Amino acid sequence: MNLFSAFASDVAIDLGTANTCVFARGRGIVLNEPSIVAFNTANGQIEAVGTDAHEMLGRTPPNIKAIRPMKDGVIADFDAAEKMLTHFIKKAHGKRALVRPRLVIGVPPEITQVERRAVKDSGFRVKASEVHLVDEPMAAAIGSGLPVTDPAGNMIIDIGGGTTDIAVISMAGTVYGRSLRVAGDAMDEAIMHYMRKSCSLLIGERTAQQIKFDLGSAAPLDKPLMMEVKGRHLVEGVPRTVTICDSEIREALSEPLRQIVQAVRDALERIPPELSADIYDRGVVLTGGGALLRNLDKRLRDETGLPVLVAENPLTSVVVGAGKILTDLPLLRKVSLD
Predict the structure, then answer these.
(1) Could you give the angle at which helices 254-270 and 184-199 cross, rounded to 10 degrees?
(2) Which of 148, 155, 176, 236 is spaced 20 to 30 Å from 266 by Cα?
(3) Do residues 165 and 274 both lie within one domain?
(4) How far apart are the C-alpha atoms of 176 and 33, rounded to whole Å?
């Protein structure tokens, strides 16, 4: 076996609360699927993983349970997470015989030592030869093309499904890092709560996500948006359709957005003055699925007075960065959390 084929099995993984992305060395992103596993409780077997399991959300019979192994950016169900990882790594390698891969896995900055150990153990149990953990904001910054090895401050805000990670990076190290457990999932919850309270309509997680994509915004829009939402009426117990507009959803999202904005302001207050000056010049980079929320960059710009840019491919910044780390050994040595 030549050296290239030995390295060709190396993979980088962004183990996200909402989605898991896999980057295979030499091939780029080979998989991007929801982080969901559907179990059959009657026989303990896995019925589906990823996209297939996501289709089952809220539609399964009592003996099939669709669960998310990740909660708030960390593993909540180790057994399910391991099975999901194994499934995704096998799928990423296709029909090729599985060589023991090197793994680079992105983790939130405030992950505990115990959680870190658990992620590494999961990696070794899926037959990896080496497992390296990297901070997700560091990977996102590298994936967004920021010059992380320069002796200057780079600020990145990665809004995922379970956590909003805020980091200031300089000389390949994290000067300030914070994980706020308010992100995409909290926005979905806020929309579900708002629909219950103001429209007496019970909606599921997938519908809430759809509303967020279609109507969600962080600041007023130039052109109003509207959509019809189907759900179950709380009082009458029958299916109902209501029409809602973007301003209602902005009101629904006000609390999670306020917390994210406040966390960014706290970060700016806590970093050394020299790095503050760098950030004032270079601006802030927004990444993760939450970066796609309409006018979030405008809202942050208004609240902080800083230039705010959205990364080119916010959904894949972490896994692309982890992939770059995978192929650059000197950088891996600098940024690995080992």
Answers:
(1) 150
(2) 148
(3) yes
(4) 30
Within-domain flag for 43: no
Q: In what helix (H) or strand (E) does residue 106 lie, and over which residues does it extend? A: strand 102-107
Mean pLDDT of the chain: 89
Which pLDDT score, from 0 to 100, does residue 6 have?
A: 45
Give me 227's structure tokens: 């959509």
The answer to whether residue 42 is domain-embedded is no
117-158 per-position pLDDT tens digit? 888 888 888 888 899 999 999 999 999 999 999 999 999 999
User: CA-CA distance, 106 to 148, in Å (whole number)?
Assistant: 16
In this structure, the answer to whether residues 198 and 247 fall within a common structural domain is yes
pLDDT exceeds 70 at position 292: yes
Residues 193 and 300 in one domain: no
Structure tokens at 255: 């609390």
Spatial contact of 276 and 199, defined as CB atoms under 8 Å apart: no
* Domain-terminating residue out of 254, 276, 299: 254
Residues of the domain holding 204: 184-254
- Mean pLDDT in residue range 172-201: 93
Query: 24 has which bridge partners?
Result: 11, 28
Q: How far apart are CA 192 and CA 72, in angstroms?
A: 18
List the one residue out of 166, 165, 73, 160 whose CA is nearest residue 119. 73
Helix residue ranges per DSSP H, 126-203:
136-143, 184-199
pLDDT tens-place string over residues 250-259: 999 999 999 9
Which CATH number characterizes residue 330's domain?
3.30.420.40
pTM of this structure: 0.88
Per the DSSP assignment, residues forming a β-bridge with 40 are 64
Is the four-CA dihedral 95, 100, 101, 106 of positive or negative sign? positive
| 124 strand-pairing partners | none
- Whether 116 is in a domain gets the answer yes
- In this prediction, residue 57 carries a pLDDT of 76
pLDDT digits (tens, 9 = 90+) for 258-279: 999 999 999 999 988 888 899 9
Q: Does 96 lie in the same domain as 19?
A: yes
Q: Are 119 and 28 in contact (CB under 8 A)?
A: no
pLDDT at position 95, please? 57
Number of domains observed in the structure of the chain: 3
